[in-house]
Design brief:
By secondary structure, the chain is an all-beta fold. The chain has no helices and 21 strands. The N and C termini lie far apart (about 60 Å).
Length: about 250
């Protein structure tokens, strides 16, 4: 029994308004109508998938028929929608993802952070989420779970030497030591500081952050090998990360 031709479609991973289509097994040269009023496209029976960008979001009926027999046709509905306007911002040791306040709706995004676990969450218009990141040019990948659209971009993360000081990290086998270094211009600091070693979730219940002395080193020994993100944070301003480093334990 001869297999029947079938019209296949898929969204373009880089553009929410673009669709790829192909009439697989077409018996002859065929005409592809994208259903938006643009001129039909004439294609050979052995054509690879072709793409088309729609002028506006909506639901469109794609149809294909042979030139010799217009009754030999097939159809498929596709839905396209405008991408949610999302911007990326590099801050001091932080990357932020922001949905535009002018967006008509929110989006459920899978965010692949540069120095943090990937996470999937819903952001409404005007909402944002952020994660700590190492300084430099850092890559972030966003995937809209509703459309499958993926966007990868780089942002610049800064690492200023401000009044909150720097972070020194020393490793000795599986033991990591950290201290906060203060610039000469730093005045008195009444804040409380803590170290998040990155393996707190290994404990049951989760271990609490370690208090960080004003000066001097404090150490932590990891039980397992792996890459960990060490963060020094102040409890006085909503856990504002002042320094962050990645350590690899072998």
């Amino acid at each position: 029994m001869t297999a029947q031709p079938r019209l296949t479609t898929r969204p373009d991973p880089a553009d929410a308004l673009t669709v790829w289509a192909c009439w697989v097994g077409a018996p002859d040269h065929y005409t592809l109508d994208w259903g938006d009023g643009t001129p039909p496209q004439r294609l050979p029976s052995w054509s690879d998938p072709v793409k088309h960008t729609y002028p506006a979001p909506g639901r469109y009926l794609i149809s294909a028929h042979t030139e010799t027999d217009p009754t030999q046709a097939t159809e498929a509905w596709v839905s396209v929608q405008a991408p949610v306007p999302v911007s990326l911002v590099g801050l001091d040791l932080t990357v932020r993802v922001i949905v535009s306040p002018q967006a008509q709706a929110g989006a459920t995004l899978k965010i692949s952070w540069p120095d943090w676990d990937s996470e999937t969450l819903h952001l409404g218009p005007g909402e944002h989420v952020e994660a700590p990141a190492m300084p430099g040019s850092r890559q972030v990948t966003l995937t809209d779970t509703a459309t499958g659209q993926t966007h990868t971009s780089r942002v610049t993360v800064t690492d200023p030497q401000d009044i909150y000081g720097g972070l020194d990290v020393s490793t000795d086998g599986r033991t990591v030591s950290v201290r906060r270094t203060l610039p000469e211009s730093a005045g008195s600091d009444s804040r409380s500081w803590f170290v998040h070693w990155g393996d707190e979730w290994d404990a049951d219940p989760w271990a609490k952050p370690t208090p960080l002395p004003g000066r001097g080193w404090i150490s932590h020994t990891y039980e397992r090998s792996g890459a960990y993100f060490v963060e020094v944070a102040s409890s006085g301003q909503g856990m504002v990360y002042t320094r962050a480093r990645q350590v690899v334990i072998r």
